[in-house]
Amino acid sequence: MNYRFSAFASLLLAVVSLVSCIDPDQSQEIIFQNDLKAIEEYLEDNTLPTAKEFSVPSDGIYMFWETSVAPTVNDQILRLDTVKVNYTGRLLTNKVFDSSIEQVAKDNGVYNSQRNYAPMRTALGVGLISGFEYATSLMRVGEKATVIFPSHLGYGSSGQNNIPPNSPLIFEIELLEVTNGPNHQ
């Protein structure tokens, strides 16, 4: 009996020692490289609208405009500006996990009768996931775009509701309105 306890304690100590030797930054780098590979495969297998494109491949960020009102990206939306958007969020499997559009939610099995489906109004820089905020800040009112980004710009290793940890995300965004915040002089 004492031998089994000693063996179990030794095994537990070995596992703890091994886990403590893993560099968390290296783990994050591995996750990021896996995200980049998954995003590249998604882009190879899926056709996206291309009225205008923007990407930072080294960061794993890709945007494709379905509707564009100018040939360049916007640089006038600042932190604390309030935006009004319609959106649909998907995983790289194309499974919808959220939408501000009631019919899209119903069509994809994510409808919640307790929710008020309407365009989302929010200030940038105060609580949205950074990939979504970054993409929205590059848009102009009246534009529709699809953005794809790695998990660290989404919900990271924690995941969220029906979004698994370390999931690259896709958002279809329609920018309806922008109200300048205090950073505009």
UniProtKB/TrEMBL annotation:
<keyword id="KW-0413">Isomerase</keyword>
<feature type="domain" description="PPIase FKBP-type">
    <location>
        <begin position="80"/>
        <end position="179"/>
    </location>
</feature>
<dbReference type="InterPro" id="IPR001179">
    <property type="entry name" value="PPIase_FKBP_dom"/>
</dbReference>
<protein>
    <recommendedName>
        <fullName>Peptidyl-prolyl cis-trans isomerase</fullName>
        <ecNumber>5.2.1.8</ecNumber>
    </recommendedName>
</protein>
<comment type="similarity">
    <text>Belongs to the FKBP-type PPIase family.</text>
</comment>
<dbReference type="GO" id="GO:0016853">
    <property type="term" value="F:isomerase activity"/>
</dbReference>
<keyword id="KW-0697">Rotamase</keyword>
<dbReference type="Pfam" id="PF00254">
    <property type="entry name" value="FKBP_C"/>
</dbReference>
<feature type="signal peptide">
    <location>
        <begin position="1"/>
        <end position="21"/>
    </location>
</feature>
<dbReference type="InterPro" id="IPR046357">
    <property type="entry name" value="PPIase_dom_sf"/>
</dbReference>
<keyword id="KW-0732">Signal</keyword>
